[in-house]
Design brief:
Blueprint (H helix, E strand, L loop, with lengths): L5 H29 L16 H21 L11 H25 L7 H31 L5 E6 L3 H12 L5 E8 L1 E3 L2 E2 L9 E4 L3 H8 L1 E6 L6 H10 L6 E4 L3 H4 L5 E5 L2 E5 L8 H35 L5 E7 L5 E7 L24 H9 L6 H7 L3 E3 L6 H10 L12 E3 L1 H4 L8 H13 L3 H14 L8
Length: 474
């Protein structure tokens, strides 16, 4: 098998594996319904239909399911790589497929299908397909490590965007791609667009791009250039038309900051609307319902932990158990955020408002543990229950810092269009504590502009995953 042909063969192998697993889940559901101990709970009253009848039905189910999978992009090379993302799309498409099959059984009166069998096949199908796809993902990664189906990529731009993307790629290599280096872009005749370290592999300048693509067999060019390079970007894309190269453009986040554009109409004239958030109307009710349900459950389950931590804090140092501090929330409203006290009383008396840092001398012994484990954040469940905060959202800041940041970071205050959160999209991407405010703002604005209930649930799961391996928790 040719290495470059793997990317075309693997989706077909994935398709065959899915078909096989769907058949298995359907036959297993048949056994569960008619032959397993489950029949004692839900007795079979109309006799056991022949297996052949369900075999023909499973063919229809498999076809409907794989069509739904294809519609949700589960056979594309750009399908989700993350475990949660894949499970979500898999469950979503399998549910759609099952609803289509269920609707068909209501109209098809030739023979009655067992609804319990269909429900069981839906549940078993999701579980078995997810397990199968995790195995296939490992198999795919193994082949890619050997060079099968890997696309070579270059990043054009050695400015802040290009270097940041290059560093992130080196720290977290993207499956299916090999980053061969950077291509430098000149902002003016006198020099390069940014200084870069000797460890950064610069292959040449934009003028050498066509040669680099040919010599390195590049198939993906990532353009990380500012908006001022608009003409150069078009020149590059048009110049590479006959080279069969894919282009990806990194948005100039400093200038457009993840704004979600929406086309609206005014008296027949199309207008582009920026800055709207999907977290309005009914969606806000859904988010609040999730907050109230989970925060109430969390406070009830964690009450013994609260009591134990309160005792440890009192025994360790003088002062109150809880620490409260004024923060700015949605629409700039002020509220008091609660935490377990992790520092000495009046820790900022001498310094004024400052960020906590690693090995901060103001921490108490118990406080160091609380911050490292993130247990100091637990009292914010009270803020969520009160409605001051949400479980997921941009982290709240003090007015002193908000006034400072909004002067230097474009669109910074737009992160206040939603409630502040205990955790957020920036935090699960490693941007916690004393990290770049500009980078955090980019992630916060992406969350604001792209909110969905599934996005919140994903962030909560990622937070739980990282709970016991926190980074930048000072």
């Amino acid at each position: 098998m040719r290495k470059e042909g793997f990317r075309h063969i693997f989706p077909f192998l994935l398709f065959l594996a899915d078909i096989l697993v769907i058949f298995c889940s359907f036959f297993l559901a048949y056994w569960v319904r008619f032959y397993s101990p489950f029949t004692e709970i839900l007795p079979v009253t109309k006799g056991i239909p022949p297996l052949s009848f369900y075999f023909y039905g499973s063919i229809f189910v498999a076809l409907v399911w794989v069509v739904a999978f294809n519609a949700y992009g589960l056979y594309r090379s750009t399908r989700p790589r993350g475990a949660f993302d894949e499970f979500y799309l898999l469950a979503k498409s399998a549910t759609l497929g099952s609803l289509v099959v269920l609707a068909f059984t209501f109209f098809y009166r030739g023979t009655s299908y067992s609804r319990a069998t269909l429900i069981a096949s839906w549940i078993l199908g999701i579980v078995l397909l997810y397990a199968e796809r995790r195995i296939m993902a490992r198999l795919e990664r193994g082949f890619m490590k050997r060079g099968y189906g890997v696309k070579k990529a270059v990043i054009v731009g050695t400015g802040e965007m290009g270097l940041s993307l290059y560093q992130r790629w080196k720290e977290n290599p993207q499956p299916g791609y090999q980053l061969v280096g950077l291509v430098e872009a000149k902002q003016n005749a006198s020099g390069a667009d940014s200084e870069h370290s000797e460890e950064t592999r610069v292959l040449g300048t934009v003028d050498d791009l066509f040669r680099i693509i040919g010599e390195q067999s590049v198939e993906l060019v990532i353009l990380a250039l500012p908006l001022s390079y608009h003409d150069k970007i078009m020149e590059i894309i048009l110049g590479c038309e006959d080279l069969k190269v894919e282009f990806q453009i990194v948005p100039d986040m400093v200038e457009i900051m993840a704004a979600r554009a929406k086309v609206v109409s005014f008296d027949g004239v199309p207008l582009i609307s920026l800055g709207r958030t999907p977290l309005e109307g009914w969606n806000r009710v859904l988010k609040r319902s999730l907050d109230v349900t989970l925060s109430s459950a969390g406070l009830a389950l964690l009450s013994p932990v609260f009591a134990l931590l309160g005792i440890l804090i009192k025994l360790d140092s003088k002062g109150s158990v809880f620490f409260k501090q004024e923060r700015l929330g949605r629409d700039g409203r002020r509220f008091f955020q609660y935490k377990f006290r992790s520092m000495m009383e009046d820790a900022e008396r001498q310094t004024g408002p400052v960020f906590a840092k690693e090995d901060d001398p103001r921490r108490t012994k118990v406080g160091a543990f609380l911050r490292k484990s993130n247990f100091d954040e637990l009292p914010q469940l009270f803020n969520v229950l009160k409605g001051d905060m949400s479980l997921v959202g941009p982290r709240p800041e003090r007015k002193f810092f908000v006034d400072k940041f909004k002067e230097g970071i474009p669109r910074y205050f737009l992160r206040h269009k939603v409630k502040s959160g205990i955790t957020g999209w920036a935090q699960v991407n490693g941007l916690r504590g004393n990290t770049s405010i500009e980078e955090r703002t980019k992630y916060d604005l992406f969350y604001v502009e792209n909110w969905s209930l599934a996005f919140d649930i994903k962030i909560l799961f990622l937070t739980l995953k990282d709970w016991f391996s926190p980074k930048n928790a000072y």
